[in-house]
User: Fold this.
Amino acid sequence: MNKQIWNLPNVLTMARIAMVPFFVWALLADRAADGQPSYGAQRWIAVVLFLAAMYTDMLDGQIARKRNLITDFGKIADPIADKALTGAAMILLSILGDLPWWVTIVILVREWGITLMRLGVVRYGVMAASKGGKLKTVLQTAALFFLLLPFVANPLWHAVAMATMYAALAVTVVTGVDYVIKAAQLVRGSSRRGA
Assistant:
């Protein structure tokens, strides 16, 4: 294997991917006899795993930039790890009834669609994450954290969590449109230069 893969940022990314099945187990195990969420100890385990995974996401990027350890593996694995964790959280929260399915579907279609589009236009140039994209990530993370907390059974807390999620949804859609426009400009600009 390429030694370049075995650096601290990439190991943290791999650890984040490895946490996803444990996170899924903890959230699914948090069910009462009637199948409804019990908001008990397993839910807290899911919260801790989610926070730990999101912390490694922040940490691996900081270390990679500071120590100049950015690798092709990291560029591919990091967004996959992010989408696996947030996607699993959204799907499971929808299964448990804490997040409407339509919200999950809109966000996941945008997330995976833009990821595939960015991979598709990479031969024309790299599309860096925008400030709006970073805000989207912060809002999604905050909303998922609020929804994962056992307090979400409280109607007031759930309303706060959903208000944050709707803000995340709006930024997600707007930045998705912005990425599509930028991708089209990138392809057009490259075609003109090649002509």
